Amino acid sequence: MPAPQPLEVWLRGPLPGVPALLQPVAHALLQAREELTAALHDFPPALLNERPAGVASVGFHLQHLAGVLNRLLTYARAEALTDSQFADFHAEVPPLPIEPEAVQRLVARFSQEVDAALAQLQTTDVATLAEGRGVGRAQVPSTVIGILTHAAEHTTRHLGQLLVTAKWVRSLSLV
């Protein structure tokens, strides 16, 4: 019988095809996906827009996680955002329509963005990591490695907020 996998993705070893310098980014994104999927597997769609004490809703975080990851990867490729990406950005502001499959759909979208990120990491030439890149309309200066690192950091920050808010709104719905 094989030994159980460690809970932390980074302790499972290098991911095939991902350059060594980008392993931490890949590990963080996979960890976020696993934790998000587990935490929201039975999350009630009726609670997606709840904002106790004015915090951002679970629905906002779900949309924002996927959208920002997509946009940051676009900047890392030195590409301009598309009209579709701008539309997604403007749609991140809840309230979301409450539908039975809303949570699964949003979790699946984040998972797809993680898959796209992993594919991009696998094809990123490490010789380009220090190359300059502009971020946003103002083209704030960064680098490929800076953007990719921020993608992982931003994802983990919003995941933490999402996890706390999800527990909070669930606890309030039991009262």
Automatic annotation (TrEMBL):
Pfam families: DinB_2. This is DinB family protein. It comes from Hymenobacter ruricola. SUPFAM superfamilies: DinB/YfiT-like putative metalloenzymes. InterPro entries: DinB-like (IPR024775), DinB/YfiT-like (IPR034660). Residues 29-162 form the DinB-like domain.
